[in-house]
Amino acid sequence: MTNRLAPMLRRLSYLAVLAQMLVAAASPLTAALAETPNDLGQPAPEVPGDLAPDAVAITDAAEIKKKLSELTIYGRYYDGEDWIEYHLADGRTAYFEKGCTYPGKWWVDQGEVCYAYPNYRDGAANCFVMFVRPNGGIQFVAFGADKAPYLASSSTRTAPGNDAHLPLNGVSPCLSV
Predict the structure, then answer these.
(1) Under a CB-based contact definition with an 8 Å cutoff, are residues 87 and 71 in contact?
(2) How many folded domains does the chain comprise?
């Protein structure tokens, strides 16, 4: 019996070493994402190729709230358009783009950060998987109609508090887009 087990154990040992080599050769982001479930116990979300290699998905609701509360994000969409957004701890937000500020709300739903503004895109919610970089940068990944992830926007900088002095009350006088 021992003679028959020896070759099988050698093959298993070889496969184990090969698997360790493959994991070590994989990119750190891919390895981390493959091993890190989100707060729902599901595998971490698929990532687009233009996401920063050091970005880590934050899907725990408490961690997302901790990161975004009382923070102003200066960002840029994938098409080059700049935006600013201030997040209050109570879920209110003010979003600025193209010369208009839109007061609204933000919340966390199933590991994604979501935003809605009454006078912006008919108040429809937009949700994103938030990725944070070691340098404090934030990237937002959205999902297209085909369910494929894409990098929607990235921060160019962040600042504590309402750094841009965005108004938080009322409805934007700008026409809805």
Answers:
(1) yes
(2) 1
Six token digits for residue 47: 């990532």
Q: What is the CATH number of the domain that holds 144?
A: 2.40.128.640
Q: What is the mean pLDDT of each run of 10 residues along the chain (177 residues)?
A: 36 31 34 44 64 96 98 96 97 93 94 90 90 97 92 97 90 64
Helix ranges (DSSP H) in the chain: 2-25, 28-35, 61-68
* Domain annotation covers residue 12: no
Find, among 141, 161, 165, the residue nearest to 153 by Cα: 141
In Å, how far from its chain's centre is CA 133?
A: 10
Neighbours of 144 (CB within 10 A): 9
